[in-house]
Structure formats: structure tokens, C-alpha cells
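Dear colleague,

Thank you for sharing your sequence with our group. We've completed the structure prediction you requested, and as agreed, I am returning the results in plain text so they can be pasted directly into your records. Please verify that the sequence below matches your submission; if there's any discrepancy, let me know and we will rerun it promptly.
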Amino acid sequence: MLRVRPAVDADLDPLYALILRSDDGLTSLKITRDQLHDRLENSTFAFRRQSQKMTGLPYVFVMEDLTTGAVVGTSSIYSKVGGYEPFYAYQIEKSIHESKELGVYREIDVLHLHKEHDGPTEIGSLFLLPEYWGKGNGKLLSLSRFLYMAEFPERFDAITIAEMRGVIDRQGRSPFWDALGSHFFQIEFPRAVMLLTVSKNFVADLMPTHPIYLPLLPQDARDVVGQVHQDTRPALAMLQKQGFSYQGFVDIFDGGPVMHATTAEIATIANSRRYTVAGIGPVQSSTVQVVSRAGSQFSAVIGPLDLHETEATLSPEMANALNLRLGDVVRVARA
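Please find the predicted C-alpha cells below.
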């Protein structure tokens, strides 16, 4: 069985070995071991803090294979983006160009640099080893974050975003970056991604602040604006089912879509319910659910359980994975 839980200091080496296997498109995982150490320290503090106020701290989760003890996946919640280093995106807006004399009317897509200092919440940094794809494992790794957000709603913004990986070829080339960002930064795309994890100051220094007219970009760059990498399509479909939508914002580097949702209306958050563990034994239901231990000792698994009004019966395997006893409380949502 696989389990998602908060990352701890002891996960540093296995988690770093894991993220080294991620590709260049996963920008938030292109970090050094020291940076990961700092992120884990901040995450540990975030999970342990008593205050429910929203901060800019990350919440880092790992997925572990309980049979082998191996760390096989990771995901994160960034409770509030912005602050000293703003969140940047391009917003696509229509520009009207009309000449009555010539009988010409044109609506042209224009990229406007958008800068956000105060929120929203962002989910990201999701990576699962390819050998663990399928069997609901990706759902567990992604949706378990929403169960945590449902348990501690005050810690997160009213809006949640997800930056989806844009189109990048097998050589790590981004058509959008080559057509736009490379002219201002004069570095290769992987190098820009690495620098972004260190500091965003160079974005403010070098990124053009004037509108960019999309028709002026090469066709291959225009074709990928708002599109996702082929490996990201399942994650995009999952988020769309959760209520996320594309609202015309794209990543400033690879042109991938930035998905938005009202946090309280995310399906897993809105539909999750708390149940008291009334039984540990054989389960009759075949309905797959994402199940988390409620409260501060968070962990989550996926599988069937029996629900009746306010009570739940779990299999011994599931109860052991979540370290549950009779009378404990779980939060449950349909997978």
C-alpha cells in the first residue's frame, strides 16, 4: 500500500534522489540539496505550527511505498505565493484594432505581464515515479493535498492556482521560451528554470513590461500558448474535474496554463466529510475513496471503505497505514 504523509527531515536524501529523476519542465523541483533542506525545514514548521493564519510557507508531502519504505512521489502546497518575490504570469487579453475606412476589425491576443504580491494558494511540485503510475496512485498524490486543505481551511487563500507544465520537447527546448524569454535573458531554458528557484529578482530586472502581441511570435510559439506537456494531460484533466479552469493566464517561461479555482469549491474540499472510525475489519464496498487521518497527524491512502451516516469501517491494512484506532476520525472524499 502507498501512503502520503508530510515530509520530514529524514526524507532529505531519498527525496532529493527522487527529484533528480524529474525533468526540466518541473521548475519547482529544479533545486539543490541545500534548497531542499531549507524547504523541508519550512515545511516541518508549517505542519507543526499552532496558528491557523495564512503564511507563505510550503507544505511538502511525500508518497511512500509501505512495502519497501521507498519514497516514490512528492507534491506540495504553497499556502500563499507573492510577498517579497511576486508571482508572475502572462495574462492574455484581447486588443481591438478597427478601421472603418478599410472595413477592418481585428481582435488580437496580447500578453500582459501580471504581478501578484498577496496570494493566492498554489499547488505544485507533483512528481511520481513512472513505475508507480496508474492504480489511483496519481489521484492519491494529488487529491490528498485537498483533504489537508479541507481540514485546515484558514491556512489557505480563497483562490488556489496550479501552474501546469507547458510544451517542452525531448531536448528540453521550449518554443515559447525560445521565441520570447530567451531574447531578454540570453540564457537557455533549463538555466532559467534553475535560476528561478534561487530568486525571482532577475524576472523583474529583465522581463519586458510592455504588452507582447501574440501574432508577432513565431507560429510554433503561438501554438503552445496555454497548452500542456503530453505527460501533464492526466493531471490537467484531474484538476478540471476538481473545478479548476483556465482563465487566460500562462507561465512566463514555457507558456503553460495557470489553472484557477475557488478553494472552497474544489470538489474534494467541498465534498469531503469527517467520519468516526467505528470498525476495523472486512469491507463490503468497492467504491474507491481518498481517506486521510483527520487532525494534525495527517496521512492519506486510497481504497474502499464502508460508510454509514457518521461512521466508517476500514480494512486492517488501511487502518494500519493511517495508524488508526477505533474512535479516531478520518476525512473521506470520492476519488
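Summary note from our side: The longest helix spans residues 33-48.

Kind regards,
the structure core
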